[in-house]
Write a structure and sequence with these properties.
The complex is a heterodimer of chains A (114) and B (107). Chain A is mainly β. Chain A is built from no helices and eleven strands. In chain A, strands 2, 4, 5, 6, 9, 10 and 11 form a seven-stranded mixed β-sheet that branches. Chain B is mainly β and 107 residues long. The chains are: A mainly beta (114), B mainly beta (107). At the A-B interface, strand 10 of A face strand 5, strand 9 and strand 10 of B.
């Protein structure tokens, strides 16, 4: 199994739809992250969870709702999105305290909002 | 706030050496990372610097000067497979990324 898996890999949704992105890590890490990657922009940190507790919300609009039921799983619930939300959404995990900042990324979920 | 700058694109020849620079201004510093990202793939960790100086790992080396807010990634003996984006990232209280440098290696 790969370290961090994301599903679905591709998602197309309308602005009125509700969908969710899923991330699972098999590395025994205790921190998980959502990043947004848009063309010609830096990776944008969205949310951070440490030991299932949200420790960072980087001013993300409420139409993105994260959920972390345990240290291995992370979801991003999407509703009433805008076309500018189309991007690659990357999940990552890390081991807090062990060279913190070394992230292990999933392959990403490519989201298109019509 | 965070400000991380790196060139947008670079081109180099197979077998040559290329240096990708990164300058940063961040609130807090706990280390600088370089990641490699091939098109359509996840970023993968390349190197980590927390103290000033050069860290060498095979064909790749990374340098840090904290007083100057400067780092570079040095790639030697370039191969075609090194064509990718190289992301500079600084760890303050979380990991923040630059826009990335797209490197194209030509024969």
């Amino acid at each position: 199994e790969t370290g961090v898996t994301q599903t679905p890999r591709h998602l197309v949704m309308g602005m009125t739809n509700k969908k969710s992105l899923k991330c699972e890590q098999h590395l025994g890490h205790n921190a998980m992250y959502w990043y947004k990657q848009s063309a010609k922009k830096p990776l944008e940190l969205m949310f951070v969870y440490n030991f299932k507790e949200q420790t960072e919300n980087n001013s993300v609009p409420s139409r993105f709702s994260p959920e972390c039921p345990n240290s291995s799983h992370l979801f991003l619930h999407l509703h009433t999105l805008q076309p500018e939300d189309s991007a690659l959404y990357l999940c990552a995990s890390s081991q807090t305290g062990a060279r913190t900042g070394e992230l292990f990324f999933g392959e990403g979920s490519r989201l298109t909002v019509l | 706030g965070q400000n991380i700058d790196q060139p947008t694109e670079m081109t180099a020849t197979e077998g040559a050496i290329v240096q990708i620079n990164c300058t940063y201004q961040t609130s807090g510093f706990n280390g600088l990372f370089w990641y490699q990202q091939h098109a359509g793939e996840a970023p993968t960790f390349l190197s980590y610097n927390v103290l000033d100086g050069l860290e060498e790992k095979g064909r790749f080396s990374s340098f840090l000067s904290r007083s100057k807010g400067y780092s570079y990634l040095l790639l030697k003996e370039l191969q075609m497979k090194d064509s990718a984006s190289y992301l500079c990232a600084v760890y303050g209280n979380n990991l923040f990324f630059g826009t990335g440098t797209r490197l194209t290696v030509i024969p």
